[in-house]
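pasting for the record
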Amino acid sequence: MRHRKWIIGALILILGLAGIAVAQQYPMEPVGGQQQPPAQPASTVQLDSSFTKANEWLNKNNLSLTGSAAGRDDNAAFGQEVILFYGEAYGNPSHTNIAQRGGMAKRAAVVVAQRSLAEYMNGFAIVGDTLVRDGVAQYDVIRSAVAGFIKGAQVVFQDYSPEKDTAIAIIKVGMYGPDGFATSVYKKMFKTERKMDPQFVKAIHEVDGKPAPSFKAAVVPTESYDGLIIDATEQNFRPALINRVFTPKGELLYDPSKISQKVLVEQGCGEYTNSVDKAKAALEKRGVKNPLVVKAVGTISPSDVQVSDDDAVNIFSANQKRSFFASAKVAFVLK
């Protein structure tokens, strides 16, 4: 029962957090023959301009904040493979020693950032002995444990301003790697290296709690397509840990259960770009020479896209011939 509750909770997390994207940022097109550096993703979560060092660090690393205690910006995570949160805290007036005051304020800022990240991820459990009240660390026993998905979060920047008596901390969670968020979630979906947990398969194949029929059709002659590009620029579609492809009748054509564990863990459900040409370039790096390009005709949810019945037949037939679903040789083109 406990295992079943964890699975259901994790699936709600996976299917609901479309804003936590498994996306890649692609460089801008060359201008005047010179390669331009990638533009920093726009974010509605901004640091106060007085935090000069923190803003310089973000600009230097070409990163944007995903959120803070005051708000969140899902789009900021789309163009980078890390989730960044920051926290602010203030010096405790009872701490007259400046070193202790600054150290405790920075510790409090880290805890505030962890709490915000936990709320965002909706699956983190933070266990420790730090008490933060009104943004001020009251005490800190050096015994802090972090459990659940927050394992792997790193403090990447800290600063304390004696003039403002304010500390700031920025923490990150990577999407991939041994402690990556997506990696941890995807691994939990498999009982063995080759077999996905039946509970996950059941939930992935449901829409609004009801089973979605799998798409089946007679195989028709097609070119030898070895990949798929879905142009969703006209749809309200966004990348997620789990993206699915349906027909207008609600038949399920593509989902993570069709992808091998190794590919899913390392690359997610596909590539994400903002143009068909960039999608072709991304798939070419993975050996795709002749992708089938189709336009999305609708969405079931922000992370579930629909293709026409005719395109579904062609996609199904092409995959039967070249099996590109298993290696997630699929690219989604976004607005």
